[in-house]
Specification:
310 residues; alpha+beta; 3 domains; three-stranded antiparallel beta sheet; 16% strand
């Protein structure tokens, strides 16, 4: 068996060209993934392999879009299935594990998928508001989302699905957030009506000693730090965190930690931040868990286009 046929998904044409008959392809040595697409029984399919298998089964002009394209860009967000592809024209084709979008005009992109801007617009058409905010913030931070190109897309192609949703969510995006959880935490603070912090803004805790908290409330001299799993699993990060918090304490800078576990309860997270602010002198409004807050957990399309009463 040629080695090239053992390493991932293959098209029937490739197998035949390498001397493998149709009967062998349909036998016990291979698994059929889609019509005309196979992989060797010993090959363990990765997510990337499944994307490639779908690409082989679709027309050459098909491109990844939406959350699938965003995941290809390196963001660990959203469901992995179904895979999202888009084709130009009225093609009707059913593939297991693939959602095929159709468009009258293919957006810009490359051989792998549509542009990050087009992928974000497509994602906003499907995503909950909080997810769209998180993804948009991190794409901005990674400099993978060009606001000028996005604005052109929104203005020149208003007919595209997701344009209204993207337009709504744009004011909530902040490219200073360095991770999805940081963006999520900031969105909670903003939606609950708490004071706006500086985000990843360097502060000098002592002459020549600078720290960069995830959130910094300058009027209250309070730092908020998010602690994800990598802060415990990565020993270098773990030790760096110990040193950083020691510097906060040594120089009398108040800080609060927000863990991944605490973030599972958004209201508890906001109350935790609010309590810390009050202890530092904040006397403004308490968190508001109505209005804007409730929109975070609804599908963005339903926020922009509320369903009509029957």
């Amino acid at each position: 068996m040629p080695e090239v046929l053992r390493k991932g998904p293959i098209h029937r044409r490739q197998a035949l060209a390498n001397g493998v008959s149709r009967d062998v392809l349909e036998g016990v040595q291979f698994r059929r993934l889609h019509q005309g697409i196979y992989c060797h029984r010993d090959h363990q399919m990765t997510w990337e392999d499944h994307v490639q298998a779908a690409r082989l089964a679709l027309p050459a002009s098909a491109r990844t879009t939406g959350v699938t394209r965003i995941q290809q860009l390196g963001l660990d967000t959203g469901p992995r299935w179904p895979l999202h592809f888009v084709v130009e024209g009225d093609l009707h084709l059913t593939l297991d594990g693939v959602f095929l979008h159709r468009t009258v005009k293919m957006p810009g992109g490359d051989e792998d998928g549509v542009s990050p801007e087009a992928a974000f617009v497509a994602h906003c058409a499907e995503a909950p508001t909080i997810d769209a905010i998180k993804v948009g913030c991190l794409l901005l931070h990674l400099e993978q989302l060009d606001l000028h190109l996005l604005d052109r897309l929104l203005v020149e192609e208003k007919w595209r699905r997701g344009v209204a949703e993207t337009t709504y969510v744009l004011p909530f995006l902040d490219g200073r957030c360095r991770s999805l959880p940081e963006a999520e935490l900031l969105a909670y603070v903003v939606a609950a009506g708490l004071p706006l912090p500086e985000v990843n803004h360097p502060i000098e805790v002592a002459p020549g000693i600078e720290l960069t908290p995830d959130q910094w409330y300058d009027p209250y001299e309070l730092a908020i730090e998010y602690e994800g799993s990598q802060h415990q699993e990565d020993r270098a990060q773990y030790n760096a965190d110990i040193d950083r918090y020691a510097l906060y304490r040594r120089h009398g800078v108040a800080y609060e930690q927000v863990t991944r576990e605490r973030m599972r309860s958004p209201k508890a997270t906001v109350r935790h931040v609010h309590r810390a602010l009050v202890e530092r002198g904040y006397d403004g409004p308490a968190p508001d868990f109505e209005g804007l807050w409730l929109t975070l957990f609804r599908r963005l399309a339903d926020v922009v286009r509320p369903p009509r009463a029957a």
